[in-house]
Amino acid sequence: MSDLTESFGQGLVFQYSAVGSMFFGSAIFYFALAHLLPVFTVGSISLLYAIMNILSAVFIFGLGNGLQHYLSYHLARNDTQAIKKIIVKTTYMAIGLAILAFVTVYYISDYVAVLFFHNIIYAQSVKIIGFAISMSVIINIFASVLLGLNQYKKYSIMYTFYYIILYFFPLLLLFLLKNTISLLYGIAFTDAVYALIFIMMVYRNYFKMPKVNDEKAVREPYKNIIIYSIPLFLASIMNTSATYIDRIVVSYFINLGFLGIYNFALVVASAASIMVLPISNLLIPKLSSFFSLNNLDGFKNSIKMLLNIGYLIYVPAALGIAALSRPILVVFAGDEYSIGYIPLMIIMFITSLFAGTVVLSSGISSVRQTRIFIYSSALSLVANIALSIILIPRFNILGAAISYSSMNAVNFIIVYHYARKFQINNFDRTRILKIWFASIIMFSIVFILQFHLAYSIINILLLILAGFGIYLLEIKAFKLISREEMNYVLDIIPDKFSMLKFILERLSYTNSSSGNDKLFRFIK
Predict the structure, then answer these.
(1) What is the Rg, in whole angstroms, of the alpha carbon atoms belonging to the chain?
(2) Assign residue 217 a region: left if phi > 0, alpha if psi is -120 to 50, beta otherwise?
(3) Secondary structure letter of residue 210 according to DSSP
């Protein structure tokens, strides 16, 4: 069993629930929009979401990871007094940033509407999302406090319901009122309600903490958190901008109709990311605990295990989506969206190569080397902007897919370089190559089969099951997961799924140096 604790494993289960609700909520949301609204209107809503995410990253001020790190650090040392002081000061900070966000967006709304939508009529929409942005700032900051306090279950349950309501309540208003602007009001209202709920959840934990008058307790200066967060703040702005800049360039150089098609392809692409995002959210607090206790073996073993598991899960999921890209777009959005399947395949293959970035980034954050993210995010942003301007006017959304994917490559190269420098990278290259080999076999079979079946939900589900079955056989045949890693997976699966646990246990292998894996000696 690895040094990852049982609480981490349980938290991971809840995190998958939260991220799963985010993806399925988003998928159903855009699926409904694709059938209720013209492509052009879907594109305008996609652009509003892009602006909302970029500006939210600006006004959160990078406090998320800083709070997770320092709260987890003091929690591991049982320093309640420092924790309570951080929570109080964070409250003032969050409210101030939320007010600043709303006022700023309100006054720049006309400029944003003309520049990106080419029509002043969109200014009202920008003002509405300005309020949603201010509430999102509070939600994200207080959610990070919950993670820093290791309240994984509460955090995940809250976000599970948040994403469900965030996507379905606005759709309900749209359906009832037949007015696109009502959808934006629904988003703003949902964010306001959940901002209050997250504040109450944090202070419920706050008042449960014992009063400690220990003169030796550490008084963590809040400036330490801000200093820690500034590199992450700059990196977050650049990273979020890099993520959405291609969409903005598509709307600027082409039109909102192409943006609607391209955005739907990106929604499908995000399906694979639900496999690794929970690992990222839970890894920083846990690695920060290892760091505070000087548990270097636990730190490096955790990095290696999560890299292996991350690639084991993400690569086949991404390549499976790539294989089924065209039928998925046709069935769930319509024939006019089908031109997005090649960009979707490009994104899936390139992001699969760099799935380990999430784990290595968490490791770098946990050893307080956050300045690295300024370099990686800045270069990722430059790459995406440069390629977007060069490729999108000439190749449309195909160029956008290449531009979007470039930031993953640049980000990985920088993060991997510094992970090696700080001696926290722990790649099992042979295992990852084996995972890729198995995933390409699965991709090839599913890709060929989809040409021989009609496009329907039933056939897509059958192909997914076929790909899953093929990959399970390959896990056993190619020895893709060790007994130690499988024990971790088994520990986070509830006992009532005894048959599933029995099957998974048979897929693992026992670590040995006998060198009996002849099939992959040529890779070494």
Answers:
(1) 23
(2) beta
(3) P
Dist CA 329 CA 31 (whole Å): 10
Three-class SS of residue 5? coil
Question: What are 282-296's pLDDT values in tens digits?
Answer: 555 555 555 555 656
Alpha carbon 147 to chain centroid, angstroms = 15
Nearest to 232 by CA among 354, 107, 377: 377
List all residues 6 or more positions away from 267 whose beta carbon is below 8 Å from its beta carbon.
26, 27, 30
Which amino acid belongs to residue 493? Answer: I
Residue 210 phi/psi, 5° resolution? Answer: -70, 150
C-alpha–C-alpha distance, residues 262 and 47, integer Å: 11
* Continuous segment of H or E residues that includes residue 263: helix 256-273
Contact status, residue 430 vs residue 520, Cβ threshold 8 Å: yes
* Torsions phi, psi for 509 (to 5 deg): -130, 160
User: DSSP secondary-structure letter at 122?
Assistant: G
Q: What is the DSSP string of 342-361?
A: HHHHHHHHHHHHTTTHHHHH
Cβ burial, residue 219 (10 Å; 0-12/13-18/19+): exposed
Report the alpha-carbon distance of residue 186 to residue 192 in Å, rounded: 10
Pick from 411, 430, 413, 431: nearest CA to 421: 413
Q: Of 391, 254, 388, 272, give the one whose Cα is nearest residue 325.
A: 272
Single pTM value for the model:
0.69
Q: What is the mean pLDDT of the chain?
A: 79
What is the chain's percent helix, strand, coil content, to nearest 5?
85, 0, 15
Q: Sort 493 into a burial class: Cβ within 10 Å, 0-12 / 13-18 / 19+.
A: middle
CA pair distance 77, 212, nearest whole angstrom: 13
Predicted pLDDT at 522: 30
Chain centroid to CA 330: 25
Instruction: Please give the average per-residue pLDDT across 104-132, as a whole number.
Output: 88
Per-residue CA distances from 412 to 300, 359, 387, 436, 443 (Å): 18, 11, 17, 17, 24
> How remote is the C-alpha of 285 from its chain's centroid?
16
**CA-CA distance, 463 to 445, in Å (whole number)?**
10
Question: What's the length of the chain?
Answer: 524
Q: Are the CB atoms for 404 and 384 separated by under 8 Å?
A: yes
